[in-house]
């Protein structure tokens, strides 16, 4: 393998830049640590699972297979709860980095934070020199690249992705003689015709509580067809086409949805859909298992959100991409990379994604039997692989992204649902905050 290129990544944020400077002394070895070594390719490596618990069983299966293939490498598995993983990484970095793993699960939602603190090695060259070259879904690769804040380097190997899915009750559609909601015209017609408020039956359920803005963005960009989150250095979120799409979306509330949607997070929304007479739900692939378990395969189907108009390219808002990161402080990167390459190989990547119900990143898994038996996953994979599909890359690299898109503005979104704030005023408010955050980020690039 040729030496990995060393490029200086663009700092992802003002706050992260300050933190990087504060950590420079410890990260560069003042406490006796090194920046990491290739090592012998043998021995023990540590792997942090970023969703320990739900995924522990499948990871242990993969690790056992890896150790069978490489008997001179032992993988120390450490399950980290998904709610604690970012703080766990931050604490380890702030302590000097010695306690960081050799390999860790890294999602795009917090990738930029790790890149800014200098915790990860770039993996671009390693991928190019491996069996993974040209075998990773391009849209996932671009999502990882964009989330890392560096347009030249990848800082994790993508392993899986989720995707927004329009779930619908095939039994209710059949009884009402309605076509599948594969166009926006069909969607809004079904939402109306499947609603009987007096009978406690609703055409749709939406998310008004935690996570509401993420779902709203899915619905807005899919309907507007705007292919990019930025137009220069200004967000397209407040484009009149997106405002119009949001107005149509919020008009569904309490007209064809339950009033409880105002405070529903995803768990409550999904449970309400699975246990009641609700025609449609927009959520990701992660709820597929619950739908099948509670409704049965004959009563549920899932498709990607429709294109903006007939014949147009489908527009998809990027979902967080999960991946495996190679940590800079590791002392045996050669062995760590063998593990990453093995886990991301077609067979192992397929095995892992079949277990968790996500889209595999390795194109070699696309024709596996389990995908053919899971139509929603197959449809999501095909749409993601379609060269016409436009993926709107959300700015996960902005340090203020989570605050702006979640806690800071979710109460304002509830005001929109209640008619106390217009869709335009909401979009203008969020757009102004995003534009300021983008300007600040660009100012602090290296």
Automatic annotation (TrEMBL):
Membrane-spanning residues: none
UniProtKB keywords: Cell membrane, Lipoprotein, Membrane, Palmitate, Signal
Record SUPFAM superfamilies: Periplasmic binding protein-like II
Keyword Lipoprotein (UniProt): yes
Keyword Membrane (UniProt): yes
Signal peptide stretch: 1-27
InterPro entries for the chain: Bact_solute-bd_prot1, SBP
Protein name: Family 1 extracellular solute-binding protein
